[in-house]
Amino acid sequence: RLRLAGEEREVFMVLFLDNQNRLLAHEILFTGTVSHTEVHPREVVKAALKHNAAAVIVAHNHPSGLAEPSQADRRLTERLKQA
Prior knowledge:
The chain has helices at about 40-50, 70-80; strands spanning about 10-15, 25-30, 55-60. The chain is an alpha+beta fold.
């Protein structure tokens, strides 16, 4: 299942890619509340290593319908890039 639309809670999904950017696997790693999901970069890295991924694509939904990234989203993106 790759669709995040329609989820009642925030979910954080990771797509794991090989070195040709082909999809190896996808997982919902975290599920939160209607307005927040706690994401741990260490767990994202662990999952990427488990799948032997060369790259990842991360995504999460906003059940509120507001598509604009929050400051927390921007900070998380930076923490994930550093990891």
